[in-house]
Amino acid sequence: MNMAMTNVAAGQYAIPRRVGSHRARAVTNGVMTGLCAAAVALALVPLFSVLWLVVSKGIHSLSLSFFTKLPAPVGELGGGVGNAIVGTLFMVGLASCIGLPLGVGAGIFLAERGDGKLGHVVRFTAEVLAGVPSIVVGVVAYGLIVLPMRHFSAMAGAVALAILMIPTLARATEEMIRLVPRSLREASLALGVPAWRTSLSVVLRTALGGLINAALLAIARAAGETAPLLFTALNNQYWNLHPLQPTASLTVQIYNYAISPYEDWHDKAWGAALCLLILIGGLSLIARLAAGRRSQA
Amino acid sequence: MNVALSTPVADTARPKLEVQKLDAWFGNVHAVKDISLGVDARSVLAIIGPSGCGKSTFVRCLNRMHELTPGARSEGRVLLDGEDVYAVDPVYLRRRVGMVFQRPNVFPTMSIRDNVVAGLRLNRVRADYEAIVERTLTQTALWDEVKDRLDASAIALSGGQQQRLCIARALAVEPEVLLMDEPASALDPIATAKIEELIDELKQQYTIVIVTHNMQQAIRISDKTAFFYMGVLIEHGTTQQLFTRPERRETEDYVTGKFG
Amino acid sequence: MDKGHTSREFDRELRTLRDRLLAMGGRAEEQIARAVQALVKRDDTIAQAVIDADATIDQDEIGIDELAFLILARRQPVASDLRFVMLALKVVTDLERIGDLAVNIAKRVRDLMRFPLSPMQDRIELLAERVLGAVQLALDAFVHGDAERAEKVIDGDVDIDALNMHVIADVISGGDVNDAHTVARALALSSVSRYLERIGDHATNIAEMVIYFVRGRDVRHHWPRPRG
């Protein structure tokens, strides 16, 4: 630095040798790249250890009957988590039916009309809601649905999951729609297309890839929730597809198995965890593929 | 030179587009101040002036795109064939007064074919789409370049091709007036020359108002030129007169580059 | 040109063009003046000097043409700049022709020196004086961008034409037709007169271009003041 300043003062604009030498820069570059690589490796350690642990401990439990059978009592061989898989899919499906239209709708509102006072209120609410711990959402659903109906139910679990989906989905939708260049909207309006049709046929259509991605990620996240289901859907040892009955779910099943004192239930917890991992991984993969295909098109 | 600068034969007494005492604001910014001028049918009016002189805002008032900007408003009258455009539904107005923007804005999710007929399809207008695609793409000299890949995505085209596609898309709705907001400013010289050639062709059928930063372009393509400065119409006359012997000192200084 | 172009280089080019044009105009004016001087003083040396100096004016013409073309190609001038370059391209041709005519006069002066002084000498000197004045006034109008002075040049051309007609008529009627010397002298004298008259025409051309350049614009108005 000093050298550089004296050089400038002397009116010589030659690059100072010590600062700019090729070797020095190469060394700095190498060290920095190495540090970055180390940080990446460090971050990957827990990720891979979780994956390794779940796969190595859960793989033994997996069999066809594990996916299709009801849970077996303690000490009995066999049995599965079929009802929990179906329950998770059922509740996540129900939650999506409630949460997707609301979340995407709110996002469209924020993007199109969100510059007013109401928009700010909605946006602030969504942000606060996104930060609320999921167990609190579970308690709220318990108070709102389970208590008045005097019954744990799949519907109560779905509502809790939907409440978790809505704020993130709304914000993601808003972002996606705002990413659509204003010029496209103007192009459509300048062709004499009404504003509402422009929003639907041009703006939403352009943002569709991002929307699908955001929705799938929200669904995957909901599928991995345990806490909100504890006081809402509770659990069920049998098959259930009735929305007003308690329903099993993979996450609660894992929780129950894991806190039990029995060795073979612990194994089953690992198996169920692997199941959940595959389910969520599959959803994320679909989201990735969908997004990739859209961006290439 | 002679062709471009010759004044068009006035076939109607009343101008196609007549602007009377137009003012436009963005919030508190008075962007267009008391502008009155007429545009003859089947002629090209070029609007020149330094950045921020209100020329884009002025043009956007003509098809009521200006009012879509939050906080924007305008006063005064714009008559299209004698009818006040502020008294009709802007959606229908924009089908009569088409617009081409500075940067090509093709619909990225649509094919070339769908882009051309987007204005018709989105408005549920039934027509012979195939014939319109071929006609407008031929008009814009794009047909030979894209006829074998009409179903390919429009964003695969080059910038110049995209801009000509945007013009074809605007023409497909069959407007009477075409507004162009610096349509060639983002293009290379060859693509620019093609657009200019196209404007010369389109003049036979349409009334064109073009905003341009490029004075040589204004000289080449327009019949009349209007010079805007700080939202005010300083001078409006035939292109030949404005660029050889401007009446106002401000115009003289601007066109000769003695600005600021 | 009270306000400079944003491009300083463009300003310099236009100024160079103007300076060279003025230098060439000065040289052309000097050529006429010296040709007239040779005529009055019957001085062979001066006449020869005029003939020799013409090459410089031809060089001026080539240089100015090149510069004007360069400016046209590089700047695509419009409005007053365009009119100025057009003025330069036209005036340069007139100045070059004036130079050629001065040479022609000098050559006729050398012929005339073989004969005794003509009685028409005074008339021709008067014509020469008028023509020189017209050229000076035209160049003056150019320097100052003064259309009124240019108009005077155009008005004065009628007198020059009339004077020329008189000189030629008198030269032809006044001489002894049978004297070969007198006939040759009359031919040379009427040539000089005609050359002078043509120089006057070129001065008129220059004056007309100056008027086109100046009157092309009206500078009554001013820039709108920024509000707020």
Explain what this protein looks like in three dimensions.
The complex is a heterotrimer of chains A (297), B (260) and C (228). Chain A starts with a helix and ends with a helix. With 297 residues, chain A is mostly helical. Chain A folds into two domains: 2-58, no CATH class; 64-296, MetI-like (MetI-like fold, Orthogonal Bundle), CATH 1.10.3720. Chain A is 77% helix and 0% strand. Chain A has 13 helices and no strands. Chain B is globular and about 55 Å long. With 260 residues, chain B is α/β, with parallel strands linked by helices. Chain B has helices at residues 2-5, 55-62, 90-96, 112-116, 118-122, 129-139, 143-146, 159-172, 189-202, 215-221, 239-244, 249-255, and strands at 17-26, 29-39, 44-48, 72-80, 83-84, 97-100, 177-181, 207-211, 224-229, 232-238. Chain B has a six-stranded mixed sheet with strand order 6-7-8-3-9-10, with helices on both faces. In chain B, strands 2-1-4-5 form a four-stranded antiparallel sheet, covered by helices on one side. Chain B has one domain (2-105, 176-255): Rossmann fold (3-Layer(aba) Sandwich), CATH 3.40.50. Chain C has one domain (8-215): Phosphate transport system protein phou homolog 2, domain 2 (Methane Monooxygenase Hydroxylase, Chain G, domain 1). Chain C starts with 7 loop residues before the first helix and ends in a 13-residue tail after the last helix. The model of chain C is unreliable at 217-228 (pLDDT under 50). The longest helix of chain C has 36 residues, at 180-215. Chain C is built from six helices and no strands. At the A-B interface, helix 9 and helix 10 of A face helix 3, helix 5 and helix 8 of B.
Structural key phrases:
heterotrimer, A: 297 residues, mainly alpha, MetI-like fold, 2 domains, C: 228 residues, Methane Monooxygenase Hydroxylase, Chain G, domain 1, 6 helices, 82% helix, disordered C terminus
What would the average pLDDT of chain B be, to the nearest integer? 89
How many independent structural domains of chain A? Answer: 2
**Element string of chain B (H = helix, E = strand):** HEEEHEEHEHHHHHEHEHEEHH
CATH fold descriptor of the largest domain in chain A: MetI-like fold
Distance between the termini of chain B: 30 Å
- Percent of residues in β-strands of chain B: 15-25%
User: Most extensive interface, residues per chain?
Assistant: B-C, 25 and 25 residues
Task: State the total count of DSSP E strands of chain B.
Answer: 10
Could you say what the CATH topology of chain B is called? Rossmann fold
End-to-end separation of chain A in angstroms reads 50 Å
The SS-based structural class of chain A is mainly alpha
